[in-house]
Design brief:
mainly alpha; Nucleotidyltransferase, domain 5; two-stranded parallel sheet
Length: 76
């Protein structure tokens, strides 16, 4: 259910902006590819084929530290 709700948001972003990549981060991503694979399965329901064909759903490299690293880089 959580992956389906996340997929709706991801689908909206794909349809609106046609990004090449959507990066997911945070502690929940420690679950590995299960979150990404399940979410992507639902993304196909909520996005247009032409927009999603070149888009990838990937895990953030920084993991749980993404906010800290981003804050430091911007001087927050």
């Amino acid at each position: 259910m959580v992956c389906e709700k996340l997929a709706r948001v991801v689908g909206i972003v794909i349809n609106a902006f046609a990004p090449d990549r959507i990066i997911l981060g945070g502690g929940v991503m420690n679950a590995g590819t299960a979150i990404i694979d399940t979410t992507w399965k639902y993304v196909t329901r909520y996005s247009l084929p032409g927009s999603r064909d070149h888009c990838k759903l990937v895990r953030a490299r920084c993991g749980q530290n993404a906010g800290v690293i981003g804050g430091r880089a911007t001087g927050i």
